[in-house]
Amino acid sequence: MLFNSLSFAVFLPIVFVLYWFVFHKQLKGQNILLLVVSYFFYACWDYRFLFLLMFSTFLDYSTGLAMFDAKTKSWKRFWFWLSIGVNLGFLGFFKYYNFFISSFADAIGLWGIHVDYWTLNIILPVGISFYTFHGLSYVIDIYYDRIQPERNFIDYSVFVSFFPLLVAGPIERATHLLPQIQRVRVFDYGNAVLGLRQILWGLFKKMVIADNCATLANLMFNDAAHQEGLKLVMGAVFFSLQIYGDFSGYSDIALGVARLFGFDLLRNFAFPYFSRDIAEFWRRWHISLSTWFRDYLYIPLGGSKGGMAKKVRNTFIIFLVSGFWHGANWTFIIWGLLNALYIMPSIVFETNRSNLNTVAQGKLFPTIREFFAVLITYCLTVFAWIFFRAESVTAAWIYVKNMVKGLLSKAAYVQALDFTLSTVGWALPLLILFFISIEWLGREQQFALQRLGERWKQPVRWVFYATLIFLIGMFMKTEETPFIYFQF
Amino acid sequence: MRLFLIKIGWFSVLCSGVYLMLLFAVGTFAPQSFKPNLKYTKGTYGYTNTRLQDIKKQSNLDVLVVGSSHAYRGFDPRIFKANGYQMFNLGSSAQTPTQTLLLLKRYLKNKKVGTLLYEVYPTTFSIDGVESSLDIIANDQNDMLSFAMACQMKHAKVANTLVYAYMDQLLHPVAITEPKHKKEDTYVEGGYVQRIQGTYTANYLPKSTLKIDPKQWAAFQEIIQLVKQKEIRLLLVFAPVTKALYQSYTNLPYFENKIKAQGEYYNFNGRVALEDHLHFYDSNHLNQAGVTLFNAKVMQQLFPPRTIAQPEKNKK
């Protein structure tokens, strides 16, 4: 069941009514309901993997308790490593088995040793990377005595499986979400309205911007060998808009849906394309994953303590692991490596925390310096996205090679413009302009529509929202298009 | 919570109004690239508008043909008439069982039909039927059946086009008149579209594997029930396509076995002496020379010549 599907449009109001009208006075009832509908939501993809989710939940719940109750340190360590081992084992098997086996065979093939190996036709369970990381953070926090284990199995299961975040995050922390699950939730009108606005904007980003940008991006990435110059640049730019619209759209919907049920999830995006340097970009892109790696990998490795060499090493490790987290392909690793290289100057010169505020804060327009800083950062991320999107390293290389070819010819500009307009028409560029304008105006908020039109009269604001709904109805793709991050 | 629900209710009302107004404005004034999910074209190349006006004038028919463009470009009412059969061709472009069902429910109501000749083109069982729905919505008077079809299809383009069609037909109820000749095509009374010119130059056709859409299959079953209920003879016919196209299907026996089990089925591919180059104008459609040969075979096999040329009500 996708957030942008008709079935979800039916599912959500039913759950909302049951939650606030049938179980509104019973916290336990509400949590059981959330668990049941979350499992139903997950089973709509593949009910077989529901058992894997249940097992993973039970394992982390039990090992959490066992660690807390362990009489000796060695027992505590045993339960800890059991949980880590099984969690990473599942993730490794479902996500990386084929990659490791084929990479190993390729590597020893370089020494002239040929090995026969077999790969398995493994289906990746939806959301495995996300719910595994939920569980890992919980177990690690208990091991280091940062939190106490949850004794209520239902509450813990809701923490892992809460349907808005189950398949593509945000990656929650027990310290943030569990207390909300244990607390009595009261319907808050303002929060529910904000939730609806966030859902609407998320749907617009996904269904109008991302899915339509995908047309040209797919065309270019699937035929890069026969294209060149600016056309390929346009393909990469459209992919950058696609992936942002897709993932941040998903996150907005997830956060908005959670608000309807009285939950406040971790923010995942903070207008990353308005960043002035790569460090700022990574503070604004997929925030829940970046902070996860910061807290559970970068800091345990020593973080920024222990000299420049260690800092550089840790930065490279975190970006390589982050790339690898996205998928079992060298393209993701190179994408991670590129980002590590991009961020390195700011690490070495210790300028990585120089842009902590929002660009052009309190102003309508940026300064020329800010504008160029944003533009350069955006160009760097677009270049890295080529590796993220390409099917293989060879395909990415062909893409880059052909992109550079013919880039300086005058005719290429006209051709690329003609091609783009003939492929996507005039409407999409105008919609993108509208989208960027709204995002820019709302960049100091949690999400673009949060306070936009607050001073408008209600009918005007409502007409604006209705127009967004119309644009979705008119420009949505008619076939169901899954969210990109579901594959991770 | 009460305030929230009340506001949701009011917003829904306002949103519906704004949506309708914008839909009408965009549908009427914007170029097609600004309305990808709205396609409202009256008078298309397949003469659906004229055909659907003509069917309303018919009362009793010996043969009613339904199906895709292979139907309205493949069964010539003049040949049927010459053999003593009053025939009407109700085919439309890419007509899938979903649209066939709608048309039969709409037009069988007050007509007496002897035989329903259903042209079963395999591809129409495996596609979503959007193209055909849009064609019928734009070119016929829409009723609750159209609404039911749109609900079943759950497709933004179909829904937008139907809502726009309701508004347009309310404001412009007058039917359009299509020219009889459009480029190489000529409309022939009885729903047929004739193309005399044209030969086919073979080019590569990729192999395709048929996968029957469960929704189309359910609609097909409903058609069979409807026809049985009305005691109409049902003939399922696979009209000729080029050998190149015919051979591109990798699993035709699977399709044919399923169809055969539903009634009297005839596959005319390979049964008529047709040459791809001479008797087709593209990979799918027969030219008039091909139609003449094919229809002669149909008459010979399925409709023996008879002397009663016209049903009573159509006599003048």
TrEMBL record, chain A:
GO terms for molecular function: acyltransferase activity. The chain crosses the membrane at residues 6-23, 32-58, 78-97, 109-133, 153-171, 334-351, 371-399, 419-441, 462-478. Keywords: Acyltransferase, Cell membrane, Membrane, Transferase, Transmembrane, Transmembrane helix. It is found in: Cell membrane. The keyword Membrane applies. Belongs to the membrane-bound acyltransferase family. GO terms for cellular component: plasma membrane. It is a multi-pass membrane protein. The keyword Nucleotide-binding does not apply. Pfam families: MBOAT. One of its GO terms (biological process) is alginic acid biosynthetic process. PANTHER family: ACYLTRANSFERASE, PROTEIN-CYSTEINE N-PALMITOYLTRANSFERASE RASP. This is MBOAT family protein.
TrEMBL record, chain B:
It comes from the Bacteria. Keywords: Membrane, Transmembrane, Transmembrane helix. The chain crosses the membrane at residues 9-30. This is SGNH/GDSL hydrolase family protein.
